[in-house]
Design goal:
Low-confidence stretches: none
Distance between the termini: 22 Å
Number of strands: 15
Helix content: 40-55%
Structural class: alpha/beta
Radius of gyration: 22 Å
Strand order of the largest sheet: 4-9-8-7-10-11-15
Largest sheet: 7 strands, mixed
Shape: globular
Mean pLDDT: 90
Number of helices: 16
Length: about 475
């Protein structure tokens, strides 16, 4: 894949699927005993056709090993090496490019227009939930969140000074992709956080009805992560002013491998920052990547299978919901078979390598490739399936309509922002170090007893039957 514009690109001639294969193959070659049973393809072209099935087997093998964090680091470092900064002078590694001194970008200061106070009242399941403990119990009972997510909401209810008026006025927060539909920027701003807004779109150019909230926002106009990573690094240093900051990694855009390039840019900037300035990093994992599942998760998956309706069991017996169950199993743990091929290899490389593996590396080893780095506090929670513009596709549109028939719940952007923001605040404030992969708003996907790639098609078929007008979208692409 070749992109003519200067900035962060894939190494010359590489495609997203080739890079995903290269990274996994590096781990297979380095740890042959770990992966000897997973039938890893010997050719990149075979991997491209079957990666939705291969990736969960790979992750199931990795998480059952005592050296899983070392494998994660190999994968994260190999991924970062596949991205370069291209300019008229040639290409260089992102690490070398960020080592070049740059000028901070000019910032516009937007003062708050009210007292700091975020009132997190989530409207879901046809009612309002102002009480976080009750919300957690309701979402857990409907198999929408993991038990650790329920515990996190209860912790907030018990430990915040006032759970109905959250105040973050003592925190500096850097938000990559501040205008993203999944980013709880408005919520953090309402809570009074001092925010560095990093996005192509500035808040002054958004809808006039958007309230500024109780915090101060510092806005760099038209920031481009792919072409200005060094300037953004300098801007963060100036904003921090030697104080630790929370860094939220929400930038996302589909097409032209931007999923991979944007995550690589954010990761490289985190790795280049002085360790003392990184208070925490926050990112969102997709439920449609290969996610580690423990014994309790696997039990819930089995219970879901045993309680399924007759029509669903009939489809399963016919093989229409796929074969092999909803998890790749190895030892006492497994990985969700929730990879969706239609989302593309760039999406999976970004989610699995640049997010999940990088988060585990930061948690265990700290920034890389610095060998003496200290572990980083990381909030890497699974976000719900959300009806955002970035996944506009006729099959997804139909699947959103049919998902409920399979017991899968979807969220609106506003609902996701509220829940994601609450769980991030938990990870920032709870003295206990976050445990990767435990806090999940999976919406039922991680207990679905079928491969998501095939279950999606059944959900879409139900959605098309419910709303035949959606079929027109298939013929416009």
């Amino acid at each position: 894949m070749t992109i003519s514009e200067p900035g962060i690109q894939l190494i010359q001639g590489a495609s997203a699927s080739q890079i995903l294969y290269t990274c996994l193959d590096a781990a297979v070659q380095a740890y042959p005993e770990v992966f000897k049973e997973i039938r890893f393809p010997k050719q990149a072209r075979d991997f491209k056709r079957h990666y939705a099935a291969v990736l969960p087997r790979f992750e199931a093998a990795r998480i059952n090993q005592p050296n899983r964090a070392d494998i994660a680091r190999l994968l994260a470092e190999t991924f970062q090496a596949q991205l370069v900064y291209q300019s008229d002078l040639g290409s260089q590694s992102l690490q070398d490019h960020l080592a070049t001194p740059s000028q901070a970008l000019p910032l516009e200061r937007l003062s708050g227009n009210c007292q700091p106070s975020w009132q997190p009242n989530l409207q879901f399941l046809n009612q309002d939930w102002p009480n976080l403990t009750s919300l957690g119990e309701a979402l857990s009972s409907k198999n929408i969140i993991s038990s650790d997510a329920k515990t996190a909401l209860n912790w907030l209810a018990q430990n915040l000074e006032d759970p109905q008026h959250i105040n973050l006025s003592q925190r500096k927060v850097v938000i990559f992709g501040a205008s993203a539909e999944m980013a709880p920027t408005a919520q953090f701003n309402a809570a009074g956080a001092e925010i560095l807004w990093l996005d192509l779109a500035a808040p002054t150019r958004l809808a006039a009805s958007q309230s500024r909230g109780g915090g101060i926002q510092f806005v760099a106009d038209g920031v481009n992560l792919l072409t200005q990573p060094a300037e953004i690094l300098a801007t963060i240093l100036a904003f921090a002013a030697d104080e630790p900051v929370d860094l939220c990694l929400y930038a996302y855009a589909p097409g032209q491998a931007r999923e991979m390039r944007l995550t690589a840019a954010m990761n490289a900037i985190i790795n280049a920052l002085p360790a003392a300035l990184v208070r925490s990093t926050t990112l969102l994992l997709s439920p449609t990547t290969a996610t580690p599942l423990d014994a309790n998760d696997l039990l819930a998956l089995t219970q879901r299978k045993n309680s399924r309706p007759l029509w669903e069991a009939a489809l399963a017996r016919l093989g229409l919901l796929g074969r092999g169950g909803g998890a790749a199993l190895q030892g006492a743990q497994g990985a969700s078979r929730s990879v969706v091929g239609i989302q593309g290899a760039s999406y999976q490389a970004a989610q699995y390598l640049a997010k999940l593996m990088t988060a585990e590396t930061w948690l265990q080893h700290g920034a890389f490739p610095v060998s003496a780095a200290r572990p980083i506090r990381v909030s890497a929670n699974t976000a719900p399936i959300t009806q955002t513009r970035s996944i506009a596709h006729p099959v997804f549109d139909a699947a959103f309509g049919g998902a409920a028939a399979l017991g899968v719940r979807t969220f609106t952007p506003g609902q996701s922002q509220t829940l994601n923001g609450l769980l991030a605040v938990h990870d920032w404030l709870n003295p206990a170090r976050p445990v990767l992969g435990k806090i999940r708003v999976h919406g039922g996907i991680h207990t679905l007893p079928y491969p998501m790639d095939t279950a999606l098609l059944v959900a879409a078929a139900i959605g098309f039957a419910q709303n035949p007008k959606l079929l027109a979208g298939l013929f416009k692409r």
